């Protein structure tokens, strides 16, 4: 099983930017499609963005499209989420996820993102 560790969260003002990272270890990184999810207090965990193993296909939740960019560096076994034009409603714990054949294989521990108005 792959192990995932997120970093890069923090407190930022509305309109600001953050870049999240997710470092993978334990198994071949390119065996996995990767994704970012988030969970706000009192809400269900929701999909944010996903990227194929090669990085040539991406998808985004409607709420973040045009503001967030998912990418990966397979040489560094690292997944990224560039978040621009942040809004207070983006406040959540952000998790990275590794999936194979459409099934979730591992989650990271999460990193807190707080956007102040």
Structural summary, described in words:
It is a single chain. The chain is an all-beta fold. The strands form two sheets. Strands 2, 4, 5, 6, 9, 10 and 11 form a seven-stranded mixed sheet that branches. It has a four-stranded antiparallel sheet with strand order 1-3-8-7, with no helix packed on it. It is globular. The mean pLDDT is 96. It contains no helices and eleven strands.
Task: Describe the structure concisely for a colleague.
This protein is mainly beta and 117 residues long. The chain is built from no helices and 11 strands.
Topology:
Blueprint: E1 3-7, E2 10-13, E3 18-25, E4 33-39, E5 46-51, E6 58-60, E7 68-73, E8 78-83, E9 92-100, E10 103-107, E11 111-116
Parallel strand pairs: 2-11
Antiparallel strand pairs: 1-3, 3-8, 4-5, 4-9, 5-6, 7-8, 9-10, 9-11
- Main sheet, how many strands, which sense, barrel? 7 strands, mixed
For the terminal residues, how far apart are their CA atoms?
Answer: 39 Å
Q: Could you tell me the strand content as a percent range?
A: over 45%
Number of strands: 11
Mean pLDDT: 96
Tally of helical runs: 0
Residue runs with pLDDT of under 50 for 5 or more positions: none
SSE ordering = EEEEEEEEEEE
Structural class: mainly beta
The helix content, as a percent range, equals: under 10%
- From the spread of the alpha carbons, the general shape counts as globular
Gyration radius (Cα, Å) is 13 Å
